[in-house]
């Protein structure tokens, strides 16, 4: 990137659009475990994995960490579902 400085927001946006999604934010920070963070919307898990495979196969990055985000409203639905569902689950300490 030093030899050819560029803002990768545009090409990254096109990538996610090709998979039916949208690039919401693109952050870059000093090299370390991760060199940046992108926040994207994609239609489903298959699109997420396909976009990640495209980036990884191009050799531009070596490591991706995909973290699904949900809104507080969605999280409330998760909590309500957990509360209403009787699973019979027990912790290892409770199981004999």
Write up what this structure looks like.
- With 96 residues, the chain is of the alpha+beta class.
- It has a domain of 62 residues.
- It contains three helices and two strands; from the N terminus they run αββαα.
- Strand 1 and strand 2 form a beta hairpin.
- The longest helix has 14 residues.
Quick synopsis:
By secondary structure, the chain is an alpha+beta fold. The protein contains three helices and two strands.
Strand fraction equals: 5-15%
Our Rg estimate from Cα atoms comes to 19 Å
> Which outline best applies?
elongated
Task: Give the N-terminus to C-terminus distance in angstroms.
Answer: 58 Å
Helix content: 25-40%
Structural class, by secondary structure, is: alpha+beta
Mean pLDDT: 92
Low-confidence spans: none
* Number of extended strands: 2
Strand order of the largest sheet: 1-2
Question: How would you summarize the topology of this molecule?
Answer:
Layout: H1 9-18, E1 22-28, E2 36-41, H2 45-58, H3 72-84
Antiparallel strand pairs: 1-2
Keywords:
2 strands; 39% helix
């Amino acid at each position: 990137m030093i030899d050819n400085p560029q803002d990768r927001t545009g090409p990254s946006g096109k990538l996610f659009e090709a998979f039916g999604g949208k690039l919401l934010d693109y952050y870059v920070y000093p090299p370390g475990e991760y060199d940046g963070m992108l926040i994207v919307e994609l239609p489903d898990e298959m699109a997420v994995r396909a976009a990640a495979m495209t980036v990884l196969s191009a050799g531009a990055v070596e490591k991706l960490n995909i973290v699904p985000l949900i809104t507080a409203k969605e999280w409330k639905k998760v909590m309500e579902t957990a509360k209403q569902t009787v699973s019979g689950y027990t912790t290892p300490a409770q199981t004999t």
